[in-house]
């Protein structure tokens, strides 16, 4: 009788934990969509600068239906454990010879924004919305490298976007290099 009671309590705790996890994930998704919407609707950039929760840009990967905002490099929310992360030493697409490097988790968690990144192929489109412009990138290279905290790529690229996440292979990271093709104001 005591075992049955323990099993029932355990099942109830598991169900409650599952519900809390899903509700918090849904709330985070709703909040993220609001921030993305605010980014596109914000005409007053001075107000946007004063609000720490505003994104400075949006990463869009149509093939995997990803649209996720990113923060300034120095913002505490620019953290791979909370969002996608703009890596140190990145330069924004508005600069000449820019190298914008973004990392995120893969896997199954609610912060695994790059869980479908492996589905990208050469010539797929990636867009960055930044400072009232759309920067259009095309995937040029996809490879895996040792997971050592560094990203290595051919220095012959100009104006590139680098996306990285853990590979499904042990101790490897997936690296995607995309070249800037075009830009236009929005």
- What CATH architecture of the largest domain would you give? Beta Barrel
| Average predicted confidence as pLDDT | 81
**Strand portion, in percent?**
25-35%
The helix fraction, in percent, is 10-25%
CATH top level label of the largest domain: Mainly Beta
Described by the principal axes of the CA atoms, the overall outline is globular
Q: Ends: how far apart?
A: 67 Å
CATH superfamily of the largest domain: Sortase
**Class by alpha and beta content:** alpha+beta
Number of strands: 8
Radius of gyration: 19 Å
Number of domains: 2
- Per DSSP, the total helix count is 2
Q: Which strand order spans the largest sheet, edge to edge or round the barrel?
A: 2-1-5-6-8-7-4-3
Following the backbone from N to C, one meets helices and strands in this order, namely HHEEEEEEEE
CATH topology of the largest domain: Sortase, Chain: A
Short description:
This protein has helices at residues 2-41, 45-50, and strands spanning 57-61, 66-70, 85-86, 99-103, 125-130, 133-146, 160-166, 172-185. With 186 residues, it is an alpha+beta fold.
Describe the structure.
By secondary structure, this protein is an alpha+beta fold. It has 2 domains: 54 residues; 131 residues, Sortase (Sortase, Chain: A), CATH 2.40.260. The chain contains 2 helices and 8 strands. The chain is globular and about 70 Å long. About 8% of the residues have low confidence.
């Amino acid at each position: 009788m005591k075992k049955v009671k323990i099993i029932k309590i355990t099942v109830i705790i598991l169900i409650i934990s599952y519900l809390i996890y899903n509700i918090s994930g849904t709330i985070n998704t709703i909040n993220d969509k609001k921030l993305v919407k605010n980014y596109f609707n914000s005409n007053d950039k001075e107000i946007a600068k004063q609000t720490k929760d505003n994104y400075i840009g949006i990463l869009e990967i149509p093939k995997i239906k990803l649209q996720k905002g990113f923060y300034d490099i120095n913002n505490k929310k620019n953290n791979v454990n909370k969002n996608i992360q703009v890596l140190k030493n990145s330069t924004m697409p508005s600069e000449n010879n820019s190298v914008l490097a973004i990392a995120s988790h893969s896997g199954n968690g609610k912060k695994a924004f790059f869980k479908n990144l492996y589905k990208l192929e050469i010539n797929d489109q990636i867009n960055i919305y930044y400072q009232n412009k759309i920067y259009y990138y095309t995937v040029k290279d996809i490879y895996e490298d040792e997971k050592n905290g560094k990203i290595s790529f051919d220095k012959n690229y100009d104006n590139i976007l680098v996306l990285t996440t853990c590979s499904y292979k042990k101790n490897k990271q997936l690296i995607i290099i995309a070249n800037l093709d075009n830009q236009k104001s929005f």
